[in-house]
Amino acid sequence: MNDIDFADLYQEVIVDHSRRPRNFGRLEHATHSAEGFNPLCGDRLKLYVNVKEGVVQDARFEGDGCAISRASASLMTEGIKGKSKKDVLRLFSEFRDLATGVDGTDRKALGNLAVFSGLAGFPARVKCATLAWHTLRAALEKDSGVVSTE
Questions:
Q1: What is the set of domains in the chain, with CATH numbers?
Q2: What's the confidence (pLDDT) of residue 134?
Q3: pTM for this entry
């Protein structure tokens, strides 16, 4: 393995959001929703989003998953509120680039989501972290079916 260790991966913010996920639970009257599943590890979630006039008003999620998956969904739902659909999709791309180790990722634009910068050293965990994001994109695009990381 490279010089990244598990301490980098499970930073305090990730552990906190995993143990006490924000925005956990069903969102009544959501305008958008989608389900995601990672068959590799069994992470499963349902994402609910309320969009009004092109802006995310609220987002919540339910499901079971590993610490990385829960923390990513928790931080994502916090980070997308008040953003336009276009800005959310741009944030998705930035997060995916960060998680996969693409050079030139704007970490400042990601805010708290930048804590996932150590993921690139753990390819199997990238799918855990991006599951919520792929599910979000499917919800916003109103894709039907279950989103998979495979």
A1: 6-141 (3.90.1010.10)
A2: 95
A3: 0.89
